[in-house]
Amino acid sequence: MPVPLYQAKAEFFRTLGHPVRIRVLELLQDGPLPVRDLLAGIEVEASNLSQQLAVLRRAGIVTSTREGSTVVYALSSKDVADLLRAARRILTDMIAGQGELLAELREAEHTRP
């Protein structure tokens, strides 16, 4: 029996639901990078990065190629970078809305007798 689309989407977003995975994807937005550059940009243990890269690779979100003794990772699709940019815009709007609410609360607190 095929998996319902909403369930597949939920699994996709669960795959993205780890800070190290998100950071990897952010770093790869500008193009492929070797593992050593990802390690420098994320500052986690090599074993942790390897584990998170494996999750992204199994999900088909990133690809890996070997260049000599170096493994290079890349986004599997430019749509992944588009998704990250969309998430940034959504978060910006959400935070801006919270800032406006906070300003209103502070203003109301100062105007009360």
Description:
The chain is of the alpha+beta class and 113 residues long. The chain has two domains: 1-76, Winged helix-like DNA-binding domain superfamily/Winged helix DNA-binding domain (Arc Repressor Mutant, subunit A); 78-113. The chain has five helices and three strands. The chain has helices at 5-16, 19-28, 35-42, 46-58, 78-111, and strands at 33-34, 62-67, 70-75. A three-stranded antiparallel β-sheet has the order 1-3-2. The longest helix is centred in the C-terminal third of the chain and has 34 residues, at 78-111. It is elongated. The N and C termini lie far apart (64 Å). The model has no long low-confidence stretch (mean pLDDT 93).
Q: What tags apply to this protein structure?
A:
about 110 residues; alpha+beta; Arc Repressor Mutant, subunit A; 5 helices; about 70% helix; about 10% strand
